[in-house]
Task: structure prediction
Amino acid sequence: MKSLSYSLANRRRTAPGFRKADAYTLFEIMLVLGIIAVLVGSAIYLLVGNVDVAKEQRVDTDIQAITTQLKVYEMQNYTFPSTEQGLQALVARPTSEPLPRKWRQMMQSVPLDPWGTEYLYENPGKRNPQGFDLHSLGPDRKPGQDDLPQQ
Result:
C-alpha cells in the first residue's frame, strides 16, 4: 500500500505527459528562430521590387480616373481646361478663359502621384497635339524620358 501512495505522489509533482527529458534545449529554440529569421528576410527581399510596380500601377489608375473626369468636363463645356487652368478646373471653377459654360465640381481634390508631386497636364499636348498630355514625373521628379506613363 505504501508503494502505491508513493507513486501517486510522484506523479502529482510533474504535469501529466511532461518529463524533464521532454523540454527543448536552448540550441533547438535558437535554431528555429534562425530559420524563421531567414524565411522572413528572404520574403522581404523578394517583395521590395513589388513596391515600385505598385506605384507605377497607381499612376496608371490615377491617370485613367483623371482622364475620365476631363472627358466629362469636355462633354459639358465643349473644351478641355487650358494648361493655365490645369487640373484644378476639375476642383474649382476656373476664372480664366475659356470659361466653362456648365461647370460642376468633378473631384474633391487632384491626387498627387505616389512620389508626392502633381500630375502634369498640358492642353494641347506635345505628345498628343489633338488632345491633352497627362503624366507623372516619376520617382526622379524631373521631366524626361522616364516620365510615367511612357508613350
In short: The chain is about 40% helix and 5% strand. The CA atoms of residues 62 and 89 lie 16 Å apart.
